[in-house]
Amino acid sequence: MKKIRAIVSGKVQQVAFRMYTQAKARELEVFGYVRNLSNGSVEIVALGESDRVDALIDWARSGSPSAVVKDLQIEVLADCNIEEFTSFEILR
After folding, report:
1. Cα 15 to the center of its chain, rounded Å
2. In terms of Cα–Cα distance, which of 61, 53, 80, 87 is closest to 7?
3. Active-site residues: which are they?
4. What angle do CA 86, 90, 91 make, to 5 degrees?
5. For 21, 34, 77, 86, which has the most beta carbons within 10 A of its beta carbon?
6. Is-contact 77 19, C-beta < 8 A?
């Protein structure tokens, strides 16, 4: 299991980035959430099998069709409580 926190910056708000992230995470069977941050970036917290989380990270490097990802910062988190999330949600 692997848990990450990623901060995606660039043109990532108002381009359906969260919706596409949720769809990709659910396709990969990754749990967690995605949300907009007040500074214009997007935060992704993802938990799942290592290769599936890595696939979500790879996808996030380009993101939704209208997104322009300029930077992706990834932090691997130590706590991998499998029961922490039951799905992948968009937080407001």
Report:
1. 15
2. 61
3. 18, 36
4. 100
5. 21
6. no
CA dihedral 79, 77, 5, 84 (to 10 degrees): -10
SS3 state at 81 = coil
Q: Which residues pair with 9 in a beta bridge?
A: 71
pLDDT at residue number 80: 75
86: amino acid identity, one letter? T
Report helix, strand or coil for 21: helix
10-24, pLDDT tens digit by residue?
Answer: 999 999 999 999 999
Determine how β-strand 42-48 pairs with β-strand 68-77: unpaired
Give pTM, 2 decimals.
0.94
Taking the C-alpha atoms of residue 45 and residue 62, their distance in angstroms, rounded to an integer, is: 17
Residue found by looking up tokens 């999330």 in the block: 85
Predicted local confidence at residue 92, as pLDDT: 84
